[in-house]
Amino acid sequence: MPTHYRTCNLCEAMCGLVIQYENQTVLDIRGDQADPFSRGHICPKAVALKDIYEDPDRLKQPVKRTDDGWVEISWEQAYEEVVNGLQQIKEKYGRDSIAVYQGNPNVHNVGSMLFGPDFVRSLRTKYRYSATSADQLPHHFAGLLMFGHYFLLPVPDIDRTDFLLIFGGNPLVSNGSIMSAPDMANRLKAIQKRGGKIVLIDPRKTETAKKADAHYFIPPGRDVLLLLAMIHTVFREDWDNLRHLADFTDGVEDLKNLVSDYAPEKVADLVGIAVTDIVQLTKEFCEAESAVCYGRLGVSTQAFGGLCQWLVNALNIVTGNFDRAGGMMFSQPAIDTVAQTAMMGRKGKMGRWTSDVRQLVEFAGELPVSTMAEDMLEADSSIKGMVTIAGNPVLSTPNGKQLDQALEQMDFMVSIDIYLNETTRHANIILPPTTGLETMHYDLVFHILAIRNSAKYSAPLFEKTADQRHDWEIFTELVKRMTGTAPNGGMSPEMILQFGLQMGTYSSKGVSLEALKKNPHGIDLGPLQPCLPQRLFTTDKRIQLAPTAFVEDTDRVATTFFSDNQTDNDFPLALIGRRHLRSNNSWMHNSHRLVKGRNRCTLLMHPKDAEALDISNNQLVIATSRIGSIVIKAEISDEIMEGVVSIPHGWGHNRENTQMSVANRYAGVSINDLTDHLLIDPLTGNAAFNGVPVRVSRALN
User: Fold this and answer.
1) What does the DSSP 8-state code read for residue 145?
2) What's phi and psi for 697, nearest 5 deg?
């Protein structure tokens, strides 16, 4: 029976797969025991590669919306109409008349990563958006200001740490995030088996929290106070020790002065953690042989996301747990896009232009996604055309109903996507690329974020049909027709990968595209290694521990928590999201095996809150925020802290005129019909999904 080896590209973990197949049919998908990175681990999502490949709802040829419904058209007609439509919009309304949104799947597809940027640039518009500002933008902000490159992001060396402190992350479910780490369950167990400790800070007792040695509830949006108090304690008790970082770190005294106002005694009541516990937690972190603090989605997507990611880095630095084994470290991938983009002067810039309504600033060429719909709906808006690429922002960005309304008003819209979903239903033309098993794959992004250096190339399993096009082929044709020139100098994806490997650190050790093809399980390149200050991209090769933007933003902390601000009694509960191992945003919900079983789209509520509102388990309730209401079943559990409710992300497949039959049957409701586009982290512009004020009441029967 033929066997194929590849990397699963459905999340960040890069799990190796063994796929048995016959003709054009997948017979079995298992974890690859010979993969040196994933070690045989896979999660339930891996089998969805078969489901996506075989999905009868997946588009394989271009479709056009007509008065009589959607009809298939040829690629030649599709290209011609798309280019003509976009050019007519620009000729009629000017340069900045088209908006473009890129969804999360782009970073999981090498063709999109290599060829998508040239297409986006060909649109010559300032209205560029992506899932970045609905997710990890605070990480990039800290990377740029502290280390000199927006994609120089440190990752926890969890395989060698003795103390793992997690703020707002759930790696047992995410498989790591901004921390590519397959087999998290065994990796976490290994910490405990070697005598280490895992502590989790979160408003919900998550799947990871249940396996941790300690879990502390914290109200959404207040992690910044705990981080400030911990760093205060480090300095107050003289536990700071930068080790070798002291030779090239600026701003230590500035940070020390800043945190002097945030003693544990001052913040304990606000964070709901006793002074003694804050001090003891800090002491254990400092006394561990090695320790690492890791903050993820729960602290990124909140009002103080930028400050939190800065302070996470700062805590690791001042305790000497940075750039050393068991602490926070930088990867050195075989294709080093960080170094290569830095050589081209693309380390990251910001503030070159602003959004129209709120004047929120651009970062790395993109505006915050929270501004997208409001700028479209402005009375004198210049945005008359829209392009979406592998994204479903109606379900994944704040105030999805507002975006629904905005997309209805577009003169012309194009979507590059495999599904007719809640967003692409507004398009005039949809161009569907191949996906998954039909494509070659190399993880350009997630090797940068991996907890161990490795490299792996995956060849396509199945050849595409004559009527299909790869994403890079679609981008190439559009760019050629838009600009008259081919992207990437006419190079193929494999040629670019080969060039990237030749430019990399391991080329002298024989790591090449040919070598990767001969090693389909991947090549292990060893554990993360200390690499500072050489790896820094600041002008003077020094860490900036107290960048002005972060220092000034701490004024907002004092204003928010230590002034006479009144609580909004109309919306007394705080809404947070949650994810499930069998979900990955909205587009995985068309796999029956991933959505079957008990209803996962519920509102999680603490028993005391439920009792006060006379709400029982499985009862329909109305959840209301400033921007809207949804009806959803309540799930009563003490796994959520009192005063907080939780709804999972990515559901809401109840819009009309979509073509996702399984998702429609398991529709759920969208949390982003409640999340508020006006709620952001003002420092970075990132969406503040966590801590949205809501109220909940019984639904009328």
Assistant:
1) I
2) -140, 165
Contact 179, 294 (CB under 8 A): yes
Q: Is the pLDDT of residue 701 over 70?
A: no
> Which residue do the tokens 């709400």 mark?
615
What is the per-residue pLDDT across 100-158, written as a single tens digit (0 to 9) for each?
Answer: 999 999 999 999 999 999 999 999 999 999 999 999 999 999 999 999 999 999 999 99
Query: Which tens digits make up the pLDDT trace of 568-609?
Result: 789 999 999 998 888 877 778 999 999 998 999 999 999 999
169 three-class SS: coil
Q: How far apart are the first and last CA of the chain?
A: 56
3-class state of residue 439 by DSSP: coil
Non-local CB neighbours of 618 within 8 Å, separated by 6+ positions: 633, 634, 635
User: Alpha-carbon distance 342 to 348, whole Å?
Assistant: 9
CB 528 within 8 A of CB 180: no
Contacts of 39 (CB under 8 A, 6+ apart): 33, 182, 183
From residue 154, alpha-carbon distances to 94, 97, 291, 517, 531 in Å are: 41, 37, 14, 29, 11
- Which one-letter amino acid corresponds to residue 326? G
Contacts of 51 (CB under 8 A, 6+ apart): 590, 591, 592, 593, 594
Q: 4 - beta bridge partners? A: 19
Contact 460, 110 (CB under 8 A): no
Q: In this structure, are residues 287 and 155 in contact, taking their beta carbons and an 8 Å threshold?
A: no
Complete domains list, the chain, with CATH: 3-54 (2.20.25.90), 63-125+368-441+463-490 (3.40.50.740), 137-330+537-552 (3.40.228.10), 563-698 (2.40.40.20)
Task: Give pTM, 2 decimals.
Answer: 0.97
User: What's the rounded Cα separation, in Å, for the pair 381 and 187?
Assistant: 51
Residues found in the chain: 701
Q: Is residue 471 exposed (0-12), middle (13-18) or buried (19+ Cβ within 10 Å)?
A: buried
Question: How confident is residue 520, by pLDDT bands cut at 50, 70 and 90?
Answer: very high
Bond preceding residue 572 cis, omega within 30 of 0: no
* Pairwise CA distance, residues 660 & 422, whole Å: 9
Q: What is d(CA 431, CA 78) in angstroms, rounded to the nearest whole number? A: 8
Tell me the residue type at 451: I
Strand spans (E) along 95-206: 98-102, 128-130, 155-156, 163-167, 197-201
CA distance 283 to 129: 42
